Amino acid sequence: MAIEEQVTERIKEIAAATEDTIVADRRYFHAHPELSGKEVSTAGTICARLARMGIPYERVAKTGVIATIKGTADDAYDAEGNPKRRIALRADIDALPVLERTGLPYESENSGVMHACGHDCHIAMMLGSARILMQMRDQIHGEVRIIFQPAEEISIGSRMMIRAGALDGVDGVFGMHIWSEIEAGKISAEPGQRMAHTDWFRVDIDGQSAHGSMPHKGVDAVVVAAELVVALQVLVSRDISPFEPLVVTVGEVHGGEARNIMAGSAYLTGTVRTWSEKTRAAMPDRLKHLIDRSAGAFGATAKLTYEAGNAGLANDEESAYRAQASVKKLFGDDALCDYEGTLAGEDFSEYLARVPGAFVFLGCRNPHIDAVHAQHSCYYRVDESTLVKGAMLYTQYAIDFLNE
Fold this sequence. Notes:
This protein is an alpha+beta fold and about 400 residues long. It has helices at about 5-30, 40-55, 120-135, 155-165, 220-230, 235-240, 275-295, 315-330, 350, 385-404, and strands at about 55-60, 65-70, 85-90, 145-150, 170-185, 185-190, 190-195, 195-205, 210, 245-255, 260, 265-275, 300-310, 315, 355-365. A hairpin with a 3-residue loop joins β1 (about 55-60) and β2. α1 (about 5-30) packs across α10 (about 385-404), α2 (about 40-55) runs parallel beside α3 and α3 packs across α10. The protein is elongated. It comes from Slackia faecicanis. GO terms for molecular function: metal ion binding; N-acetyldiaminopimelate deacetylase activity.
């Protein structure tokens, strides 16, 4: 058996022995979710797990963790102690402000907060990979840096970790997302753009309050807000070519203080997701034009605050093909699937803007266990049999990268 095949078989053997721990970790983190920037207990538990494995780590960016696994292969380090190569693996750790309704025995114990996007799975898979890598240091020709990143859901965590040195001295980066649109166990690892540009907006509306029985005496900010929710979809249906992907989502609408008072102010917030740079650049002006005209028609004024989020996520071609090769070694050619990409956003794009790398989708969809609900749903659940595959793929990619 060739050395490469021996390495893959060893990954499989160790992974099989640690699968139960990976699932148990996932369930623990699922039951104890924490919001973006508040992942104090989550980070503490991660550190405790790393310490038990004898893996050195550093706490950064308040709730972020960077761990280091040093290879013991003969060529892992030069005479000055510099690694031959260094690969970074990343897992995000934050949860969402969602009230869970799955009814699972390990349902969130933090009411109104839920791991509804699979970040609990990412933590568990990464810890599983760390366990495997620690038992295979003799096959690590360099250094593995493991990034446990906070605040992905609010699009600032990767920048915080980069400022803290997460990419210093790194030659490549690899990430993964468990994904509800792909069949459990299938993996998408195509090159090129995979996720959208994601920006944020808020609209503050000023009308004039009045008694609810005298609507003609005021300007109803709630009515204006309702109109804007509908009007913003004109950007998608009439303002932009149907060949150009665009999604405008209003996620919050707030207005009014009492049921018998016509609201004098209101606000709404949302996201704009675009595929091309050209459309992204046009959006702030288009939103402002539409909002100003719509509010003015009701005698109100509206202020738009537009915030650039993360650029679209695009895989480096060489890194994507390396990921595909790693998948084939572990699971065979049939494990790879074609997936067109998504208008969802990911702040992993910030790493890819600085270091070559790849981000893959690991399918978790299984109708037989009701694992069919979209990311961010209060009913979101996953096929846990895929978790060990994620841990194996992190490991195989890291070893393959460092072996080149």
